[in-house]
Amino acid sequence: xxxxxxxxxxxxxxxxxxxxxxxxxxxxxxxxxxxxxxxxxxxxxxxxxxxxxxxxxxxxxxxxxxxxxxxxxxxxxxxxxxxxxxxxxxxxxxxxxxxxxxxxxxxxxxxxxxxxxxxxxxxxxxxxxxxxxxxxxxxxxxxxxxxxxxxxxxxxxxxxxxxxxxxxxxxxxxxxxxxxxxxxxxxxxxxxxxxxxxxxxxxxxxxxxxxxxxxxxxxxxxxxxxxxxxxxxxxxxxxxxxxxxxxxxxxxxxxxxxxxxxxxxxxxxxxxxxxxxxxxxxxxxxxxxxxxxxxxxxxxxxxxxxxxxxxxxxx
Length: 315
What we know:
- The protein is an alpha/beta fold.
- The chain has two domains: 3-172, Thiolase/Chalcone synthase (Peroxisomal Thiolase, Chain A, domain 1), CATH 3.40.47.10; 181-313, Peroxisomal Thiolase, Chain A, domain 1 (3-Layer(aba) Sandwich).
- The protein contains nine helices and 14 strands.
- It has a five-stranded mixed β-sheet with strand order 1-7-6-4-5, sandwiched between helices. Strands 8-14-13-11-12 form a five-stranded mixed β-sheet, with helices on both faces.
- A hairpin with a 5-residue loop joins β9 (192-195) and β10 (201-204).
- The longest helix is centred in the C-terminal third of the chain and has 22 residues, at 206-227.
């Protein structure tokens, strides 16, 4: 089977920065309460012109610009992970391919496993390359989470944000993406919801999700590293789903990777669901690039309840 690797990253965030103080003007909350409960200081909210597919296209455009000799015409698979698209057809991946001028006609697939969507999408791209069904893939997570936000619910509206992140993945002689570890807890599928019965708005049982994340996920994340054939000490960076800093910090600590930089982009970007892992990693690599070959743990979790993770090597 053909191996694969990540060759570049890209991201997009809307221009509007929303500090905690702005939320105080329309919902009963405070900067102190939000910071203590979530670690978030500010987030980005999309304008009317920002859509799931337009943000995905901009993140993809940046990833392709960073991909060296590879360009949009060589992409034969586009996967977009999202749970906030409003339109059933055409799907977001097809719109992205059109926006980026991919007249060669790549396969275009949308994935919805909510917050774990990007890590699932990355695994699907890896599997397609291994099977010989693709050679170059553009994998994107994009969310306009504010479309699914109840701005009267102070427990959720302080979390949500908008943005997109992307990776270009190509066939490779040596593997740069470990086997995925994925799964779900169907008995807890109602813990995180975006349902028509609630006007399509995000709701969750926050305490149940928190307890699950900090008690059950550390062992699963450790198995991701084990499946990659590595010891925790070899991990150079940890990029978890940017759900809440109060989940990220204890989860990262329990994984036990003492040499790893831990992404905490949630502080400035909020919770962008399926976009959060590639967004946080792209920004990390832009701000302080990791040496080529550095093992990076990606691990996402959320609605379903679902989870997925893999180790990639920095390009």
